[in-house]
Fold each of these.
Amino acid sequence: VSGFDAAPAMEWLCSNNVSKNAGHSTYTCMLSEANGGGVVADLVVSVMDTPHIAGFEANSGGMFSRCGSSFYVTTGSASKTHDLAHIRSAIAEGGFDCDISDESENFAILSVQGRHSRAIVEGMTGHELSDGTMPFSTHKVMSACGGAHVVRVARLTFVGELGYELHVEAHAAVDVYSSLFATASQLGLPLSNAGCKAISSLALEKGYRHWHGDLRPTDNPFMTNLGFTCKLGTDTPFLGRVALEARRAEPDQGLTRRLACFTVDKSVSLHGFEPVFRDGSCCGVLREAGFGFTVDASIGYGMVERTDGGPANLDYLRAGTYAIETAARGMIPAALHTLPLFDPNGDRVKGSY
């Protein structure tokens, strides 16, 4: 997303503050005014050059200060078409002067995650990636494969580990992929392929959200513990803010339901859409579900609905006794968890093992 109005357009589209210094990447939601500020997308926005909009000073026309910044937006492949349509529609409706270029077919993303990721990516690029040089949620362009290719390295994770995403032109992807394994071999470090099911399992253990899976347009950020992505502490307007502030003004943020994490014995398979019971009464269904190999348990996330008019706050969740009805095993007891099952303090994301 680039052009004259790129910065104000992205601030309007995104719930989080994305107009930061060049080289910064921000996880954000995009909301609507429907469903109390329902989440219509969650993605990462990276600043490609410095946005000259400090403080969003109004110009004589009462609009945000103009600038020529550009933003690099990455989202999950399953929601790419939906997210692109939303961005184009919202920018057009807002009257912003922006160019939107879909670069999906031109780039590949290789994600290197785990305790050895820093050493392997440093070895392949020849660049230092320490916390002081490249902190979390930043990105840099650097050479790779002995200078044969250029990659954009972003320190990001969707699996809860120290890790880096390598954004590379599609024609160079195989070379960079091969170079990663060659570098790991030279360093004597283990490196293995992992697929989307591994990513999903690790994300379940960390409590990371999947949009359209356990995060939907009918949910506002408060229901899914994503309130931290909303710049409500600023005066910056954004799409969905009015609805979200109205919900926030209600007691307990007006929450009648809340996303909760459950585990059951590892001998029981969870697939999603199983009914969830609280104190013997059905209170919702599971959304995302799967097996957590690190925690050795089956995991499911479900929206716990409260129908008696009270708030679905943490006290209410913790006071209940839960069970999940499965096709194969019938009703089974389930344990509620209000913190991430794995590494709740995020030490591994910081590189502490």
Note: The first strand starts at residue 25 and ends at 31.
Amino acid sequence: MQDVLRRLQRLWLLVHWRTWQGRAVIWGGATLASLLIVAFAMLVEHAIALFEAARQARPWLPLLLTPAGGMLIVWLTRRYVAGAEGSGIPQVMAALHQHQDAGHTGRLVSLRIAIGKVLLGVLGLGAGFSSGREGPSIQVGASVMHAMRAWLPARFPVRPYDLILAGGAAGIAAAFNTPLAGIVFAIEELGRKFEARTNGVLLAAIILAGVIAVALQGNYTYFGRISIPLADSRLAVPILMSGVIGGLAGGLFSRAMLAGMRPWPGWPGWLRSRHPVWFAGACGLLVAVLGYVSDGAAHGSGYQATRLALEGTQPLAPFYALQKMLATLLSYFSGIPGGIFAPSLAVGAGLGQDLANLGLGQVSSSTWIALSMAAFLAAVTQAPMTAFVIVMEMIDGHALVVSLIASAFLASLVSRSLSPPLYHTLAQRYLPPRDSARRPPA
């Protein structure tokens, strides 16, 4: 009898109007987040195109525009949207760790931060910095979903933690047009698990965000569809080399980014701590110099150059990977809002192009680039599952799935010997003092 009553109670909860009200709020939040992220993507494309047109017309212009833009962006960030700096993923992780502290969480994920992240992220890429929109989209999605808690009905079984987690995953699903990558990222990097009682509703929200992005932007793959041969023994050398080289480069890159958390010695440290706006201008000037030397390759997200290299239309220049790494580090150190996902993929593409030019392994340049993209991204994030799924979905590279997995896991293993986990370590700076010594949930 009691068993029957429990089943009737579960059935009543399933059809109760409050249950559907809660689901509608969550799905509405996912829709709003996806719309904002798609708008973010479109604005970024226009901003990069305007910057490139201006640079082509006047190659000296970035020497003025990038430093001035960096100074303006950092001043606006510190004055109006503190917490929006950087990629946004460490802030989301810290918010997950402190989800029960509404005051602290509101300083890391909020609608104000979401709007500021979009506008200032567009301005940063329009000024010529080397950054991406994908990481910031995670903070945008988490911010929008967290704001939805005010409209949830009483006793609806979804916590702020669940909303932040689903919003972050929806952000990456919409940003890359890869719903599966959003789910994997949520499990592997943000929260490592979903609660059984809410996973259906939240997974539906993530998938909905990806579907809306596809509906608005078309059913495209992020880097197009490339021709990949079936895996065979010829891939052994490319897997090994891309995994080891990508792991070493990604580990060193991650370690360099973590150096940004610590006080710097000498006058750079003085300028950075005492005059952060002027420091951002100095970083912007160095990015502009790199852009001038590389004929614009150091600017922007690296998306277009990577796409052309994968298609075999236009190979990347020698030393592209090094130039992109330096420009991305300087952009991160400046304190502007901007992510490292797209630049990391571009760096990986540059490494793959260099390895392909060595003539080792009888495989195409596109295969080398795809493997190295997965390897470098896995090494930087130390999230190999997410890295290989992102690359697989972005290039429609299902024929390479096993090779991508092997390259990503090998690179992540190598990276761990050089650097602690990047995002989890960066998240510590956003935790209250009493929790700063503890690592966010892994």
Note: DSSP finds 20 helices and no strands in the chain.
Amino acid sequence: MSLIKTIRNNTEAVIGETELEDRLHGNKPLRVKLGVDPTRPDLTFGHLVVFNKLRQFQDLGHEALLIIGDFTTLIGDPSGRSSTRPVLTKDEIVENAESYLDQAFRILDREKTTVFFNSEWFDKMSFEDCLKLSRKMTVARMLERDDFAKRYASQAPISIIEFLYPLIQGYDSLVLNADVEIGGTDQLFNMLVGRALQKDAGKQEQAVITMPLLVGLDGVKKMSKSADNYIAFTDSSKEMFGKIMSVSDETMWDYYRLLLEFSEEKIEKHKAEHPMQAKKHLATSLVGQFHSMKAAKYELEQFEQVFSRNKLPDDMPTFTWSDLVGDAPSAPLFEVMAQSELFESKGAIRRLVQQGGVKIDGEKQTDPNLEIKPPQGEQIFQAGKRAFFKLVG
């Protein structure tokens, strides 16, 4: 396979492909840029799609420029948003950035990665510098962005600072003399601004590579923390295995393609299997990558024990009555479950119970206010398909 075909694999679009092909055959390693804004402490499998492409460039001998957008996070990337993002404090951004780097190097080659924080150059800019940069873009051009156009048409607020975001992202490429920038399809406009700024400065324009947006666990929306349909790099092996097993049969093949980077030929072989078997292979492979194959095989055994053989998992947490409710003679079901700290919130527990997703000793419960008393012996609580805990008196 030619170099350019290798690079194009699993991409949506390559802008400046002819120039990129010429550079790939040159003697100089390319500077390949990826920017991430540390808005949350965890990277998700959605990030893994672009990290895989960046690692591919590294394997071909090129240099990865990983931009931690500590300055741009103060603005909030408006891409794909219908409203302004909440503003984080500088301390929150620093903490998230440290976490991002720890996780990024699970995929990237540390020796071939140069890390930049874009506050390095933006903190030095004067207001006059900012005004000069603003002259490079018109309001009409900004409104070509689909998300801005929709918000403008619906009279949803768009702050001036959000208008500046594509310019700021593009300026990163200008400062770093990026040869290539990669990102999701929702980043296309921003990355093209980088090309425009480089051209205006008389520099060689970066090639732009867009990657597909990974569909989340709901099988509908793109994977994101805000949609609560994500798998995080930092999920436990149990959480990660269970989440992967919950994806639809249709979505599974995108995960094979974009996360495991399987060829169509290899995917076809797995399509010949029973979907459940193919999904177990997917979950085992990804858990093995982020944890270990030993952990992956253990989670497979636990999954099969619970779902295939209708047995209880060996590793469920155990609580005593006093652990959860102290000396109280009884407590509502939702409160007992909440005190286990295994669930997101009391509201989520109430909804789960009302929807019939909670069982006690195999019997479905529908009343979140059901009074629970200390068990004589032990009780097994099951919430959904994956959460179990044991309560003893």
Note: Residues 160-176 form the longest helix (17 residues).
Amino acid sequence: MLRIVADDLGLYKSVNDGIIFLLKNGKINGASLMANSEAFDDAVARCLEVQSPNIGAHLVLVEEKSLSGMTLPKNHKIFFIKYILRLIKLSDIDKELKAQIDKITQTGIKPQFVNSHQHLHLLPGITDIVIKLAIENQIPYVRIVNEPVNLSGSKLFRKVQLLFLNFLSGLAKKKITRAGLQCNDFFVGFVSAGNLNSNDVELAKNLTEKYPDKIIELGCHPGHENEELKEKYKNWGNYNWEKELNLFKI
């Protein structure tokens, strides 16, 4: 089974436009919503345009504004260092993630799955919090990252990061299934995040054919672009929302 899920719904109005277009036209299977993003209210309103939109919670612990008063680091690298040094309390993370899920549910949207910005929910300790919140909110599905790795070619550092995430995902999957929740078996979209191409889509389809009884999730970041969006998130690298939107429009 192939699930195509667009992340970052709520990030920016033009991103919402692209994601909602794909949802309305059945080009993707769902979208994960950021509760602490600038275009959250617009995203919630736009979800009403889609019949059974399949919305999940995209939990955010970096870059955006906190809902609980917690100080969110500027990027995932700073977060990871502070987390390893125990400068970030699990109790604060619990409070923040609860506030984000509460904000989504209070709009009337019932999240059907949960994942996170930069996959930080896969870090030990945070995984336990997310599982607890998923059970409390009757969210049946938690994303893991288990993407095939080919260390040849470019993006070597990104692929080394993927090896680490795949390891964490193996640990997380055991906890998720033990808790009676569901997760995907494979994931495609980490190495090429922000710049997916037809090869990534083909890989996801090939995995689906090879493992017909498994859940294959293809994560994407589609949207319409403008200069303000690109300037605001220039630290993300060469993200190409429009390219990914066009990839799934076909």
Note: The beta strands are 2-9, 30-33, 55-59, 114-116, 186-188, 216-220.
